[in-house]
Amino acid sequence: MFNKKQAPTTDDPEIPAVEIIAPRLDEIRTLRARLGQEAGSLRQEEFSLAQEDGPELVDGAREARVAAILGLTPKTVTAPRSQRRQQIATRLRDIEDARDVLDREMTTERGRATAAVQDRLMPEYKLKIRDLLDALIAAHSAQVEIRAFVSRVEDAGYNTGWLDAHPCRWLDVGPNGNIARFLDEKKKAGFIADRDIPMELK
Q1: How many angstroms from the chain centroid is the CA of residue 132?
Q2: For residues 169 and 165, what is the distance between their CA atoms, to the nearest angstrom?
Q3: Theoretical Cys-Cys bridge with 72: which of 14, 67, 88, 177, CB 3.0 to 4.6 Å?
Q4: Pairwise CA distance, residues 134 & 191, whole Å
């Protein structure tokens, strides 16, 4: 599946573009674009018809039928203005319905492609998440050390306002902090083992 000729990919060359896994997506986009162009032309025509003045055209179709009976060459039939506007309205509704169908198909195709590539990409994603978790654990340890240092300065009898000017206030410490909760979520999701989480974050 992944050995097909490469199409333009994302920045990571190891991640195949979704069109490689689901080539139908390109066909859907092309068809949607064509329908969009047709709808635009029809709306322009409808606008032009709405601006026209004067009486409606006579029943050209009836004249053509009479000419055929008489063995004459029928005139080119032009639909009356109101009839043509009704045709345009009907066609626009049909195009809108068709585009809705294509949108649903595109969602289905993208979902199938995602399912096909998920197992291949998940190991790399897990490694990246684990790097993040290790970095957060290290950040927590650094924050604990900073707080301990500030406490030592305060215990020695000094003011600590000059130290409090540079805290990372959102980086809570302990088992009820943001990092601890995030680690617990990722542990339950299988991104990190319980043994790899420091006790102070459990």
Answers
A1: 25
A2: 10
A3: 67
A4: 11
Residue by residue, what is the 3-state secondary structure of 23-57?
CHHHHHHHHHHHHHHHHHHHHHHHHHHHHCCCCCC
Q: How far apart are CA 11 and CA 73, in angstroms?
A: 64
Instruction: Record the tokens describing residue 130, joined without a space.
Output: 């684990």
Average pLDDT over residues 6-25: 72
Start-to-end C-alpha separation, the chain: 43
Instruction: Give the HSE-up count for residue 2: Cα atoms under 13 Å, Cβ half-sphere.
Output: 13
Which of 171, 107, 176 minimizes the C-alpha distance to 145? 171
Report d(CA 69, CA 67) in Å as an integer.
5
Q: pLDDT: is 105 or 13 the higher one?
A: 105
54: pLDDT strictly greater than 70 = no
How far is Cα 107 from Cα 50, in angstroms, rounded to an integer?
A: 37
**For the chain, what's the residue count?**
202
